[in-house]
Automatic annotation (TrEMBL):
Cellular component annotations (GO), alphabetically ordered: membrane
Transmembrane segments: 32-54, 66-85, 91-112, 119-139, 162-182, 194-214, 226-246, 258-277, 283-301
Topology in the lipid bilayer: Multi-pass membrane protein
Annotated ranges, domain EamA: 3-135, 166-299
Native source species: Alicyclobacillus macrosporangiidus
Keywords: Membrane, Transmembrane, Transmembrane helix
Superkingdom, taxonomy of origin: Bacteria
Protein name: Threonine/homoserine efflux transporter RhtA
Amino acid sequence: MNRGFVYLALATLGWSGNYIAGRYLAGAMPALFLNGVRWAISALILLAIARLTRRRVGLRRHARELVLLGLVGMFLFSSLTYIGLRTVPASQAGLISGTSPMFILLLGVAALRERPGWTAWIGVLLSMAGVAILMGATASPDGAAHGGPSGTASAASAAGDWFSQGPLVLLLASFTWALYTVLGKRWGGRLTPFEVTAGAAVYGAIPSLAFGLWSLRGQTLHMTPMAWVALVYVSTVASVAAYFVWTSGVERVGAGRAAPWMNLLPVWSVVLGVLLLHEHLTVRALIGGAVILAGALLTGVRSGKRPSAAAASERPGM
């Protein structure tokens, strides 16, 4: 087997762990504070790597593009993801993330004048149907409170909001990720994948940390040893290491063959959620997730255009 595909699988596994860690940390700290600490650490690491490898980040030269990418990808997307994970089990959150290819296609048509084939539009319809099924699935009581510090009491008490808030917040997160991807495609010719990731991380860390510190007012942190491990994980493996592993995989197999491997992320999220957090998925949730994944495959693989290397390489550490 081509080693590049192994790298792609490992990268999606690393990113899926962000959902597990984010869910675990739901009872340890405010979602916005988690996001601020995560990207502050990640930005420092990426800047250090840039300095050691003598790579340019273009913080001044491409300030406009990187500020917007940082706001959308690192601040909005990640913040919404962690907010959603306070009320939605990680496995179901991962399945909802499978709607990103649908939003990418729709935004690509609107902003980039792309012309997808008819199979891609079937994929959009399937994704929408999967979302409807998944949104109607009943959240598992066991999945609402497993794993986090103090029994994730805050997450458990908010389980009643699953229908009205959690899934909708995660759908909005999926949309902002699609917007980040489309913006990356638009500027892919001017920015390298590393410039996009490092530059957006730096600019995204600024509002993330500011809002994170604001959200901490009057709050108490509940950090256990495993909570510290989870925090280090999202700041290093999910934000930095997985990016380099993914990029290595893309370089070996090509962007067109790499892009469909993104669909492994929801699968890994379900597996890890069940194994590590002891979450339970209803049959209806599994059916909805399967329909979403089928739609994602049709939307992403048969869109009629091969994704650019930049688009396939960028990933702000889901």
